Amino acid sequence: MSYVTAFWVGGLICALCQILLEKTKLMPGRVMVILVCSGALLGAFNIYQPFVEFAGAGASVPLLGFGNVLWKGVKEAVDENGFLGIFMGGFKASAVGISAALIFSYLASLIFQPKMKE
Fold first, then answer.
1. What is the pTM assigned to this prediction?
2. Transmembrane segments in this chain: where (predicted)?
């Protein structure tokens, strides 16, 4: 049942973003920034963690989850290192996810041999 919950929650987030893209004049980059900032804000108000516990990967994989991870990393780093934690916490918290995305996308490019559009 947790797979079904993750699927419909993640799908709902994606559908809302698609509606936002089609019904407004916002560019995709701005929508992505809105999602990351919203995830960080919801994390700051302790709203996002119960949502992640309910929806699992449906809430932690989209960009909202990335914003929440950045917030948690910054919060922990500030508690440990003070003001300097603002600058290093997000990098420390998200390094594994970003590294995995880079490694797997590189491996996919080796397998599928992408070509430039002309």
1. 0.77
2. 6-22, 29-48, 83-112
